């Protein structure tokens, strides 16, 4: 039996490139990797661009390979046969049902039309939104918890037609907790206890979104759930839970855009001369937002599954293997970005991959850019001269992501 497993997952003709011993210990799920990913990613890109890590997954780290992988139909978004969220668990686990209902876990052809409709409705709604009024007014002492999180929560509540009088501090806190739980779907689920709590949280979040959709169906208004409910009514093949689950996806993604803003503000406070540059040349803000998203992306990697054996360079990625696309490594690939480890707001625009690309590329990219630009304008014109309280940031242990735990600041 062992022989069979070896034959299936570790074919004899794999040829390994001579890689430094440190590569053997890279664990993309570890806290150490999240805390300090860039030197490990540089090693991978340089010595072992198609790398098999100890968990058995393959890591791709070059921009060109990842761009090709994002367009390769042999790499599926559907969960692996061994994943807790595999579709065969749908009837048993809420997490598996939610995952298989939502866009990032679907393949064409089911994915194509659902994505087109949801993206259209989302972008139409976004065009009508005005974000300026969502900026917090009090001087923050923590740029994640007192600035970025309230900005995103207020923005998403306004897009979702959750009226200010309903939007209590308790609901804000609950929504953010649900958003964080939702992102466990993109990670390995470590224990049965974790899975049980995830199921409970997703069940409540789903009920909240179903309730919102029903309420908006009965009393439509100019907001995203009303437009999604209308889309649902026009498309009888879509189930109630499918709509509620993608509503959850959009809400969770939007609420967690605070981490992108916090990473950007953190980078700027580490290099205050860059804040001065933006003060002197505010026309650089749109390019600065892109550059900050490239430089310290809140998404480190995304996952795919090989639907068949794939030969890539001198490695054979066997059918059913997990393939992790290291977006953060692509963003620092010197073949694409000159002085890739330097923050440069005047660099020539090149395609960074923090938002993925192609048929699964991020639907919220425009919203994130708008929120980040708004935050940068606020930082250079309205905020006091903040300094970081901590020299070493604390990162959450959220595999595949680089999310700060907090961002305390002081006014020196
Ligand atoms: C915080 C910054 C964000 C980053 C770095 C980011 C990154 C990404 C990436 C890399 C993907 C591709 C996943 C894949 O190919 O498997 C993706 C997909 C997606 N993103 Fe974002 N995202 C962000 C914020 C948002 C926001 C604010 C929204 C909407 C409110 C959003 C909605 C989506 C949706 C719906 C998908 C799935 C698209 C599909 O599978 O067709 N994202 N995002």
From TrEMBL:
Looking up InterPro entries in the UniProt record yields: Cyt_P450, Cyt_P450_B, Cyt_P450_CS, Cyt_P450_sf
PROSITE patterns for this protein = CYTOCHROME_P450
What's a Pfam family in this record? p450
As cofactor, the record names: heme
SUPFAM superfamilies referenced in this protein's UniProt entry, alphabetically? Cytochrome P450
State one molecular function term (GO).
heme binding
Which keywords annotate this record? Answer: Heme, Iron, Metal-binding, Monooxygenase, Oxidoreductase
Coiled-coil zones: none
Return the PANTHER family for the record: CYTOCHROME P450 YJIB-RELATED (PTHR46696:SF1), P450, PUTATIVE (EUROFUNG)-RELATED (PTHR46696)
Tell me the protein family, please. Answer: Belongs to the cytochrome P450 family.
Protein name, per record: Cytochrome P450
Q: What is the lineage of its organism?
A: Bacteria, Pseudomonadati, Pseudomonadota, Gammaproteobacteria, Cellvibrionales
């Amino acid at each position: 039996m062992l022989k069979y497993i070896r034959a299936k997952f570790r074919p004899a003709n794999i040829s390994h490139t001579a890689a430094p011993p440190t590569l053997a210990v890279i664990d993309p799920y570890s806290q150490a990797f999240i805390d300090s990913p860039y030197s490990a990613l540089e090693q991978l890109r340089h010595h072992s661009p198609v790398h098999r890590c100890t968990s058995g997954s393959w890591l791709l780290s070059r921009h060109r390979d990842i761009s090709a992988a994002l367009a390769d139909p042999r790499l599926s978004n559907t969960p692996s046969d061994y994943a807790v969220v595999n579709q065969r668990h749908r009837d048993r686990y809420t997490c598996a049902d939610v995952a298989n209902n939502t866009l990032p876990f679907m393949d064409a052809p089911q994915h194509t039309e659902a994505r087109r409709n949801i993206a259209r409705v989302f972008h139409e709604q976004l065009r009508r939104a005005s974000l300026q009024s969502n900026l917090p007014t009090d001087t923050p002492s923590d740029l994640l918890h007192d600035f970025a999180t309230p900005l995103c929560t207020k923005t998403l509540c306004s897009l979702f037609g959750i009226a200010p009088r309903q939007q209590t501090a308790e609901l804000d806190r609950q929504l953010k907790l649900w958003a964080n739980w939702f992102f466990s779907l993109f990670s390995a689920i470590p224990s049965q206890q974790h899975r049980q709590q995830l199921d409970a949280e997703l069940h409540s979040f789903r009920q909240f979104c179903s309730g919102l959709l029903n309420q908006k169906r009965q009393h439509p208004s100019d907001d995203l759930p009303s437009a999604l409910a209308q889309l649902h009514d026009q498309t009888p093949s879509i189930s109630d839970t499918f709509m509620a689950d993608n509503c959850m996806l959009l809400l969770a993604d939007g609420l967690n855009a605070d981490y992108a803003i916090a990473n950007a503000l953190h980078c700027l406070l580490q290099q205050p001369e860059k804040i001065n540059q933006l003060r002197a040349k505010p026309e650089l803000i749109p390019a600065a937002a892109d550059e900050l998203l490239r430089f310290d992306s809140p998404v480190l990697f995304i996952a795919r599954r090989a639907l068949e054996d794939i030969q890539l360079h001198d490695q054979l990625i066997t059918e059913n293997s997990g393939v992790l696309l290291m977006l953060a490594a692509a963003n620092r690939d010197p073949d694409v970005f000159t002085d890739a480890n330097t923050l440069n707001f005047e660099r020539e625009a090149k395609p960074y991959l923090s938002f993925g690309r192609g048929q699964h590329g991020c639907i919220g990219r425009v919203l994130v850019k708008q929120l980040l630009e708004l935050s940068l304008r606020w930082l250079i014109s309205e905020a006091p001269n903040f300094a970081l309280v901590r020299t070493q940031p604390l990162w959450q242990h959220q595999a595949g992501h680089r999310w700060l735990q907090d961002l305390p600041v002081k006014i020196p």
